[in-house]
Structure formats: C-alpha cells, structure tokens
Amino acid sequence: MPGTEKRVTLVIGSGAIKCAASIGMFQALSANNINVTQVVGCSGGAIYGVGIASGMSLEDIQKASEETWHKDMMQGYIENLKASKDGTLKFDERSGMVDDTYLNNKLRKICGEQSFADLKLPFIVVATDLYTGEPVELSEGKIFDSVRASLAIPLIFPPWEINGRLLVDGAASNPLPIDIAIQRGADVVIAMGFTIDYKNRFRSLTAVQEQMTSIYMNNIFKYSFAFNTLAHHSEIFTILPEFDSNVSMFDIHKLPHIIERGYEATIEQLPHIKRLLEAD
Fold first, then answer.
1. Using an 8 Å Cβ cutoff, are 193 and 175 in contact?
2. Taking the CA of residue 140 as centre, how many other CA atoms within 13 Å lie in the half-sphere pointing to its CB?
3. CB 97 within 8 A of CB 119
4. How far apart are CA 27 and CA 188, in angstroms?
5. CA–CA distance, 128 with 118 (Å, rounded to integer)
6. pLDDT tens digits, residue range 221-276?
7. Number of CB atoms found within 10 A of residue 44's CB
8. What element of type H or E holds 136?
C-alpha cells in the first residue's frame, strides 16, 4: 500500500472499560492494511496499548478485558470508606481505598515479565507525578509497573512508585496524549478518546465528589484535545466512539457493543486516513 512508510502512532486515551473500543479500532485498521508503528496509552488505554504493542490477538485482549473490569477490582472499598469516615483508617499519600491485589494479578497476567524492549512495537505509557502534577512518560523497564502506575486512580488505587517518583493515573494530567505521539516523531496520529459519563442523581457525598472529578477530567480532556487538534490538525485523526447509554467501569456485558462502536467510528475516518497515508 502506498504511503505505509509514514509513521503511524495509535493513541488510546483514558476511559476504563470504554477503552475496549480500541479493539474495534485496531481491527478496522488491520483489515485495511494500515500499519501502526507506535502506540501510546494512558490509564485504561494502557491496558489495550500493551496488548496491541505486544502482538496479542484481539480475542485475547477482549478476554483480558472481561477478566480485568470486574467488581472484584474494588475489594475493600466499602469497608475502607466507612473506616475513613469514622477515623479508624489512617490515609496518606501511598494509600488507596481499594485492595489492589486483584488489579495487580490481572495486570501481571496481561504484562507478564515483559519489558518495553520485548514488545513488537514501541510503546509509551503516560502517568502523573503525585507531588508535582506533571505528566510522566514511561517507556523503559518493566511494563507492569508503568501500566499499574497509569491506572492508579487517585484515592481509589494506591499510587505506584517508579524510579523514586510516586505516580498516579495518567488521566489526571494528559487523558489523550496526542502531544507525546507528535513529540515522538509520528507523521500521522490516530487517537481514540473518551469522556466520563455524568451522574443524574446524587445520594451521597461520594457521588457528588465523583461528579466533580468527572467534570474536572472531562474539561482537561476537551481543552487538551482542542489545543492539539488546532495546533496539528492535518496529521491527527480523532476517533470518539458514541454509546447508546452510559457505560460504567464494570459493564462487562456491554463489551461487544463497545468494541463494535470503536470499529464503526474508525470506519468513518478511514477514507480520510487512507487519503493522507497515500499522499506524497
């Protein structure tokens, strides 16, 4: 195919189980012989990014999704929430409301003992420095550590330390890291991003806090997306799947729908992507 020598970077932003839409995206790109040469992942997108970069089959990536986004991921949350309110839980910067054993086990199953150098495609993971708020690019060492750090939702999962830096969710600083793809030399960026669904009923202080976090995160996403699109419009293709209803973190039964919407949203962009790749 003419133009495949151009460097195509796949960016998968934060979005928890919604990031499974990237399975459909990669399926559509592969079926149309579009060669991805680099992958960037943030938060939930890091799980799918490592699957693609390591050469996992799409079936195995979907199976890993079904096992990972399970309610067992939140073990200990209710007990710790109660303990935090009555003062029996002492919270510090390394604490989380959830026992991360389940999450760590599932991530180790996906990442194994691989390092970044073992992957078939270059892969960059985005996390956030808890102390400075700065985005942190991770592309060396054990993949498990980087993906785990990028998934450390503040207050929920304990932060993860890498090279002396305490790291949390990449979505807190760069939920759709298009800029990193550009800085790493991409000629064409295909970026899939997601917003967080808002609540329409509030029955607790926690629900209000979650809503405010969603507002903050969605605004960060929208502003960074608008800036990068404006600055580098001709090289960026954004794929923003839409779903029939709200999708929560544990809606495993919606995975086929999520993947299908990712595929459909990518197919809509394919004529434009191919035109740019085939241009001299």
1. yes
2. 3
3. no
4. 18
5. 24
6. 676 766 666 666 558 899 999 999 889 899 999 999 999 999 999 999 999 999 88
7. 30
8. strand 135-138
